Amino acid sequence: MQINTKNLVSITDANHNFSKVARLVDENGFAIILKNDTPRYVLIEFSQFEEEEVLGGEAVDAIAKRILLRHKIAFAELAK
What we know:
A hairpin with a 2-residue loop joins strand 2 and strand 3 (38-44). The longest helix is centred in the C-terminal third of the chain and has 25 residues, at 46-70. The protein is elongated. With 80 residues, the protein is of the alpha+beta class. The model has no long low-confidence stretch (mean pLDDT 82). The chain has helices at residues 11-16, 18-28, 46-70, 72-79, and strands at 8-10, 30-35, 38-44. It has a three-stranded mixed β-sheet with strand order 1-2-3.
């Protein structure tokens, strides 16, 4: 993720003008909220969040399959 300085918002600005932050997300896909001049929070569209959740779940499934295949004999022995 490339950080554009236009996407940076202080937590004070976010508290006082959330509609500005929402507009940034609508225009750029995300906004980064700074606390004490340090990136602290990322605000993204809900549809993007859902997509990330699906991709994360697929990654977990792939890892689980790889572990099961690698240790198939051990798991079969434990199942007895």
